[in-house]
Amino acid sequence: MARRPQDAVQFTFESAERIAGVVRAAELATPQGKPLTFEARFPERMPKQVRAATFTGSWAINASKVVTFAYAPTATQTVMNLSWPITHNHSVAENCIVGREGTSWWLVVPVLQAQTAVFVTQTQQRTYCSATASQSVVTGVSTSSTSFTSLSDVSVTATLDTTSCTITVGVTKTTASTNVVTGVTASTATIKVVSATATAVFIQTTATATYIRLRVP
Length: 217
What we know:
Blueprint: H1 13-28, E1 49-55, E2 63-69, E3 76-81, E4 94-101, E5 104-110, E6 112-161, E7 166-214
Antiparallel strand pairs: 1-2, 1-4, 2-3, 4-5, 6-7
């Protein structure tokens, strides 16, 4: 039958006497070296610890700050911030998580918030109007006219009468009608025309995504 860890260990009288003699000899012997100690021999193996705490004010990267442990109002510790640029000057105690490695304390993470934002996924370069100028343009034209009759052709004929020795001359006139513009009326309007252009990058495509940021009260 296998022995269990909690089972009692029994010694014979002779074995007990022999063990007691070895112990007495060791106690009476002169120490030849450094006495036994039980402090931590390997600091890097010290247990790590994570604590909830609070702090006030801003906290820059590579700066230390005294924090107060949660549930222990009188327990404080100096903590180093290696990665979170907290620029807001908190006037009210702000929560955070700190951790210990070895004998040093570090800021693990402050309070974060999830925010939704629209991100630009594609852009396109376009030319746009950068300046305008006012110009007057004709919007309508009307005219008035008068009709004139003019001589366009004249035909002359002559006939000789040999009996009476007379000449008869005949004249034929040809006329034409012509319209002549006597007046012009026009209406105008003021419009804006492009006087200068420029090139810019415009948003073509967007997408909605969620990102994490430091919570600012």
